[in-house]
Queue: 4 jobs
Job 1
Amino acid sequence: MEYSTLQGKIIIPEYGRNVQSMVEYALTLTDKQERERCVEAIMQTMCNLFPYLRDEAQRHKMYDHLAIMSGFRLDIDFPYDRPEPDEMRYHPEHLPYNETPVKMRQYGRIVELMIASAIEEQDLSRKHELIVRIANRMKRNYLIWNKDDVEDESIVADIKRLSDDKLSCDFPEFAIAKKKTLLGQQETQKKEQKKGRKK
């Protein structure tokens, strides 16, 4: 018995070693008609593994996969444009990563963006509503990532610090939700997400 680790690399693992071996066998066939018949049998096997590929619109993907598995050496009459090796070597551009430091990591970058948005808000009632939401978000983030409780006064002080004293919590409607309420919302959201996945 030969261990699979001693055998060649599987080029597209989703199809498995058997399909890879069938493609390698097809490459050894010298008669083109026989090779075409062999490829049809391979295509049927691939369709059995992935039934959605039976769709005519998806069929060109199987031919692309065959070409890739054969190292682009399979000599058959492709019904679609034959893929070129250079096309497969394309790598997407590197996405720039935001490396600006977060002032208070326990709250995260999104809270900083929310505070910047609240500073820009002109409507006073809307600004107050945003400050309350930011305070609740900050407390919730803190409680999620820390075992210790956090005092509401500490959240108020952090809002002033993060906003460079541009936001104030001194208005009648300001109130931060209790720990149980904030973490209860999180549990409710988790349950709803689980229900959504089951559907």
Job 2
Amino acid sequence: MTPEVAETVEVSLWRGREDGRYQTFTVPLRQSQTVLDIVTWVQRHADPTLSYRFACRVGVCGSCAMTVNGKPRWTCRTHVSKVVDDGKLEIGPLANLPVIKDLTADMAPFFEKWQKAEGRFVPSQTRADNLAVVSPESAERRTADAAIECINCGVCYAACDTVRWNDSYMGPAALNRAWTLVNDVRDAGNRSRLSAVASDGGCHNCHSHQSCEQLCPANLNPTASIAGLKRRTMQAYIKGELG
């Protein structure tokens, strides 16, 4: 006898703000259904007041990141069949961030820490100078390339235990961005950037749990980037470049 295939899934969605609660919906199952499809079905057919964030639907923008059965994921690329547990799904907003409403997290603290880590390019030349030529085979370029594809979705930040324990910690994405700039030979801001990432809440707060690397949808390794910052800031300290 062919096993009976479930036709619905029981979905618990976070409602309200930090003091909210989970509300359960019964949602029809479809072939190749994603978690974002589930959330969209609830908003369109069961409760139009449900708040959530998405844009591209094809794994490019990262704005649809949510917590699915305890782990942060891009919901547009997460198939229900891969994560459903005994016919149930629990979907909440990203952890370690304030909740605006329902499944929508406030990304402001995430980007504020990105700025605290001085994750902005500081040009060493002007528009009047010739374009800088950077060999794609250089060690610095290869190191930057390994970390540069971050799209700031916040999954690593939500997965990070150190962020959970330490509100001042800059987080994997901000430090990963700083590492790409440290290795950009065109950048002129490294002295102050290394000072920033070596300060309280910086790279030396990382405990190397590697949850950021394990869950990054872009297959990046922020733990490796942070380890690079630890080495580089120590070198700068020994040379007297940091106070």
Job 3
Amino acid sequence: MKKIFRHFVKDPSKKYIRKFRIYPSFAYNRLDKWLNRMSNLGFHLVDSNLISFLFECEAPKNKIYFTYDARSGHNDDGKYSIPLRYPFLKKTYGVKPKYSKLNKNQSKAYLTVEIDTQRIDIENDVGYKELISDRNKLYNKRAIKNGFIFLLAILICVIAIIII
């Protein structure tokens, strides 16, 4: 069985803070922006899971992050295969693990990758923009589908209550 969770070892000479936030998959673009703002304030992400974010306090730096849920599988039509594209993402856009504590301590389930802005121009790189667009389309589509199923289930329950 593959190990999904790992334990980040804190450096006793550094200061850390933990923040708790819930970002559903359709809001990962907002999560990425929040993580970028935190790094600009001097709080650099070193570990995360679905609701907990551990930051190391250092000098402010402009870091770019990309988040996706590796547990979610693939889209039925295979168009938005973010988990299949992860090795490409990590190799092409990610900061090398020896230079990024976050990329060295990756979870297998919930992935936030620190993007290497020295290797790519995130404003003009077509592949990176396409990856962001695909992720957002996939998770928005999934949220709408799940919301529709939820509303349909509530409607069925209401009808069942009225009939009984």
Job 4
Amino acid sequence: MTKLRVLLADDHAVVREGLKVLVNAQPDMEVVGEAEEGNATCRLALDLRPDIVVMDISMPGLSGVQAAERIRRECPEVRILVLTVHELGGYLRRVLEAGASGYVLKRAVGEELLRAIREVAHGRVYLDPHMSGQVVAGFIGTTPSEGSGTSELTEREVEIVKLLARGFINREIADQLDLSIKTIEVHKARALEKLGLHSRADLVQYALHQGWLQTP
């Protein structure tokens, strides 16, 4: 069995040790590296190319948001799951905009974290149930304009919007659909305009409303 390669990033050694024991106890996962601050997290992500980085938001050096932005820019194939104590919607929006594909609260039970790791590592978005309610309730100020809907999108635009909401970047979508990056950008721009959306966080909110982010 090919194991999911996990990089852990948290400035508390006790937290990292507990996560390491939990992850390494799974037959389909293994911890390949640990970091206690943001810059080291980015270096290890670049060197190790793990399947997923499980990181805190509050770390010395680069914050989790800054580290996520850098990792997604330099290692777009690496997925990012944020594990944090912060329960405010503003933090969730910031990490989604930075490129993270998952957000789990530290008070979550182990099984939920493991599920989140598997979901994010396989290209899906995972939001802690306590946080997803805030998204659906509209914690993001910009919502689809009145009258906008999936019916206005072409089949290709729907396909691209779904992939964007799940955390894939333009280059990855272009590879999956065998299209040029420029073509992806054009479809993306048209879809966002039709839906009245302005950011990736808005896309995630819209996709949640449409039921596109449910586990198959």
